[in-house]
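Handout, page 2. Input:
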Amino acid sequence: MANDSKTWRCGKYELSFDRPRIMGVLNVTPDSFSDGGEHFDPDAAIEYGLAMLDAGADIIDVGGESTRPGFTPVNPDEEARRVLPVVRALAKEGAIVSIDTRHVAVAKAAVRCGASIVNDVTGFTDPKMVEFVKTSTCGVIVMHAGEVAAPARTHATVQLDTSAAAFVAEKAREAAAEAAREAEKPARRRRGKLLGEPKPEAKLPGGVVQPSLPFGEPEPTSEPSSEQETPAAEQAAAAETVAPAPEATEAASESNDRLAAMMRRSARREEAYVPTSQLRRFTLPDSAPIMRRVMGFLSDQARTLIHAGVSRDRICIDPGPGFGKSANEDIVIQRETAKMASLGYPLMCAVSRKRFVGAVSGVTEAAERDAATFGVCLGAIQAGANIVRVHDAAGFAQFLNGYWAVAKPQSRRAFVAVGSNLGHRCDNIRAAREMIAEIPLTCVSNSSKIYESEPAYETRQDAFANAVIEIKTELAPLVLLDELMKIEAELGRDRSKKAKANGPRTIDLDLLWMDGETHGGKKLRLPHPLIGERDFVLVPLEDLMHDPARFFRYNGVEVKEPEDRVGHIVGELGRM
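Output:
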């Protein structure tokens, strides 16, 4: 939706949805279903995360446990060792980082390392996870993982026999079956309860009832589950100077993990499916019972979080495609995106490379399903989805920029700082202004006067001429930045390694701020991280807006007092 009024508060960041946001998938795992092992090394993962940011991703979703069908659960300590260095490095570069975990100990450690979002595939059904997020300011993603339709009942062929002998034989068989069931009961006990007995619902402070996990009944095991192991996640985080909370750490084993059991059942159901002679009347199952389960769970969990103390504008919802759902059910859910968007929470489309995408596109290899993924995501965006979670962030950014430019006309205000201290300084600035006005889908709406300032950072050079240009643009921030770099090169800016970073230059163009945009990475940071200390930027901005210091402080930028800034303005050089 072109002008969605929803906002999502994630720690110190606030995301608006006048444009869909891209979440790049970063699996720090050896066994993820489409890219397992590619970014398992922390340095490789960090490099890839930064590359996704520089290619157009708004959020990086870091996960250390694969939850593909048939996955093997990962101990929280191992998961922490995988993700914490990556989370810390990306957050340091200004990235909005999401931690994809179902373990509260890992979530705590990641948030302390700089993560701004907790993405819980179990939908915050663990009261300990709810207790944690209510005391933080991070954004939360509530995901539905579970079967959405009851298994089909099978009926044995019945042959009627009215003889007295048959009646007596049937009664004898029933009595024997009952005796066998009674004998099995002690062996079927698990943690003091029969497997068939309902699990009591947990209660949170204030009397709020926490629903049970939506995974269906776990598979029976041959042995009772062991006691919880003593956590060692502290050791992993200690190596990173941050430790997960020990009281929340649990051992994860394939035998007693409910999510793993549900995903194994889902995989077997897909593999065991064979056509039957019974014809269906419709191509897809009825959407009503499926959406009652999915939307009911998402609504209930969102309300549970709100009642626990999590503000509504921190909550995002995700229907969990592929988690316990067949291809038909996933298609039904995607077609009902508008209904889920009507719940009022930011809505995520996380279909990237999933099995149902392969089913509708005919692509067998998961890593080759990106084009089909983009098509499904586009349909979701048109129906109201706000965030798309994709593996190919660079490809989807190109796809979205092309679509958005044509389908959703929308100009946004931005500020560009211009500086020069080589050649004819004022002429260089005026030439840059004229060239900025020629950028596609961009116009110059206002300009400050040209000021002279002391050199900043590298003081042994000539004084600078500086100005700020206000523009309106329909381009994405990274696309606009590329256009500004082209202007620098055309006007003779030397950006080679031999040139000093803050040394003399014919022209310098910095994208300072863009309406509704927050971005991190090596290539671009928005808002510009040094606005608040540059007098040669803040003074020209006073020609374009009232009290720029107050404006940027409101947008989360630390602004220094005039005497503490660098590059002080020393005079005026004329109008643009």
